[in-house]
């Protein structure tokens, strides 16, 4: 049973990794990335690594999405508030 | 089959029939629709981890499940806070 | 089954690099890089896995030799934290690029003049 | 290099990597096998010394120098992020005088859940750091949890509330002290797992708060229109 679980988790992880890469809009990608972090956490616990699963949960579900969203927010705000000097937008 | 013997098959079933559809929901549609999939994926993943802890007979693994339960919710708050403004 | 997990790690690495190469947005590129890095977590942990073994944490069981490799787990722990800080640093650079150049499309960032 | 050429180069090199990686992977020992030379050399010592969490003790004893390097990478990255984002802020402040932070439009549901969750997650973070020696968990995980818990106050309230409970100079000195303590421990007293756990937890948490603070400034600092 453990083997079947590991195979399922591996397939799920590979699927989510591909999905993260293929989601082109960064804001939507952040949501998918958060799900990918959960998939990794399940895989790590199945590989008998609870410490690593906890680390991945802590980093992958809150910190990285928050940083990504804040970066998107900063970039977007900059684009709208200060129209490009070279008239590109 | 002992009660704990059911835990691993149950975890498998929940992983395939519970977590996977939630992840599918994060892959399509507007950010709001995706977010609902993510919010649901948190508890589903928590349940999978709980069943794994039971199936492996390791109460120590419950710490990981606890952390997922708390932080997946906090993580969806992050997105909810910026919903409509940035995403 | 015996080598599938390693190939999954290779797939994740290549998928991340593919996203990096075809990216039209630096934020997207940074996230793809973090995906590529997560391949190393999967590879390390699958190499350390041992069938019918348990985690090398003896808080609730008697110490036993039948555990998965603890050294690679310790390495993965280091890897994850460094990966997160690298992501943060690269996103800080991306914000700076957006400020200075008004775009985050790598194709529009050809010259080096400010 | 045009997009088409770039994709072509990637396809060629990616195929090469895929072939070489597959060749290397099939020569690896079987998945789940019993041959783990590193683990076999470490485990008997760990069991002999009655170490509850072998992973923590490897990180802070056998690999103490690696962990020291990792902590310094963490500090350098946090420092670099702060420096990179700070110059931009100075520019902004030169350009106009008054600033405010973005408006807070939080729904009641978010506000209440955020406030309820904050203490629970804080306590969890402390628990994870403190019990890292015994149960799964440790300085890294707990530090990240602690560092991100503080930001729930932003998710629940608004930015000024976060700024009040998060005095940046305190976290800067906390980070410096933790890094210094960790260098001392790693060089002189490697193996003090409990103390090193606490130092790492403090360091990771402070670094995270500092980096996130700069991102918050970038994202939310807006010029007041006169």
Protein described:
The complex is a heterotetramer of chains A (89), B (87), C (114) and D (226). Chain A has 89 residues and is mostly helical. Chain A has one domain (2-81). Chain A has helices spanning 2-22, 26-46, 50-81. Chain B has one domain (3-82). Helices cover 76% and strands 0% of the residues of chain B. Chain B has helices at residues 7-25, 31-56, 62-82. Chain B is elongated. Chain B starts with 6 loop residues before the first helix and ends in a 5-residue tail after the last helix. Chain C is an all-alpha fold. Chain C has one domain: Helix Hairpins, CATH 1.10.287.3510. Chain C is built from three helices and no strands. Chain C is elongated and about 60 Å long. Chain D has one domain (55-223). Chain D is globular, with a radius of gyration of 23 Å. Chain D has helices at 3-27, 37-48, 54-62, 64-95, 108-130, 139-149, 152-156, 159-165, 168-188, 193-220; strands at residues 99-101, 221-223. Chain D is mainly alpha-helical. Chain D is built from ten helices and two strands, in the order ααααβααααααβ.
List keywords for this structure.
heterotetramer; B: 87 residues; mainly alpha; 3 helices; 0% strand; elongated; C: 114 residues; Helix Hairpins
């Amino acid at each position: 049973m453990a083997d079947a679980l590991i195979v399922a988790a591996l397939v799920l992880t590979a699927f989510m990794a591909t999905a993260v890469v293929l989601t082109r809009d960064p804001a939507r990608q952040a949501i998918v990335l958060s799900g990918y972090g959960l998939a990794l956490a399940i895989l790590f616990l199945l590989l008998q690594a609870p410490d690593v699963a906890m680390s991945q949960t802590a980093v992958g579900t809150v910190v990285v999405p928050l940083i990504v969203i804040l970066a998107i927010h900063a970039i977007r705000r900059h684009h709208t508030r200060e129209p490009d000097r070279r008239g590109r937008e | 089959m002992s009660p704990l013997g059911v835990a691993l098959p149950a975890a498998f079933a929940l992983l395939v029939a519970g977590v996977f559809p939630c992840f599918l929901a994060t892959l399509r549609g507007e950010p709001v629709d995706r977010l609902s999939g993510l919010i649901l994926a948190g508890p589903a993943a928590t349940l999978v981890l709980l069943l794994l802890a039971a199936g492996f007979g390791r109460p120590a693994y419950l710490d990981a499940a606890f952390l997922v339960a708390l932080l997946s919710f906090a993580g969806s708050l992050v997105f909810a806070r910026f919903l409509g403004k940035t995403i | 089954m015996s080598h599938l997990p390693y190939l999954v790690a290779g797939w994740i690495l290549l998928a991340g690099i593919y996203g990096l190469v075809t990216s039209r947005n630096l934020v997207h590129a940074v996230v793809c890089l973090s995906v590529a890095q997560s391949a190393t977590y999967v590879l390390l942990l699958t190499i350390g896995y041992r069938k019918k073994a348990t985690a090398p944490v003896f808080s609730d069981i008697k110490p036993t030799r039948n555990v998965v490799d603890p050294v690679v787990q310790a390495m993965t722990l280091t890897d994850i934290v460094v990966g997160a800080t690298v992501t943060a640093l690269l996103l800080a650079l991306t914000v700076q690029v957006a400020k200075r150049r008004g775009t985050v499309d790598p194709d529009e960032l050809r010259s080096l003049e400010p | 290099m045009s997009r088409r050429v770039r994709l072509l180069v990637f396809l060629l090199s990616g195929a090469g990597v895929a072939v070489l990686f597959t060749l290397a992977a099939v020569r690896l020992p079987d998945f789940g096998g019993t041959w783990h030379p590193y683990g076999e050399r470490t485990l008997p010592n760990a069991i002999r010394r009655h170490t509850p969490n072998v992973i923590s003790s490897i990180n802070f004893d056998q690999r103490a120098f690696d962990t020291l390097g990792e902590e310094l990478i963490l500090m350098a990255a946090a420092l670099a992020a702060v420096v990179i984002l700070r110059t931009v802020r100075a520019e902004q402040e030169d350009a106009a005088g008054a600033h405010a932070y973005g408006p807070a439009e939080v729904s009641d549901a978010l506000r209440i859940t955020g406030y309820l969750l904050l203490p629970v997650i804080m306590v969890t973070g402390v628990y994870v750091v403190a019990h890292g020696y015994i149960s799964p968990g440790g300085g890294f995980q707990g530090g990240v949890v602690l560092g991100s818990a503080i930001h729930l106050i932003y998710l629940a309230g608004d930015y000024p509330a976060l700024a009040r409970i998060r005095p940046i100079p305190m976290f800067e000195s906390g980070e410096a002290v933790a890094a210094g303590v960790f260098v001392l421990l790693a060089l002189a007293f490697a193996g003090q797992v409990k103390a090193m756990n606490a130092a790492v937890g403090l360091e990771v948490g402070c670094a995270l708060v500092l980096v996130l603070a700069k991102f918050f400034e970038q994202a939310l600092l807006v010029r007041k229109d006169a």
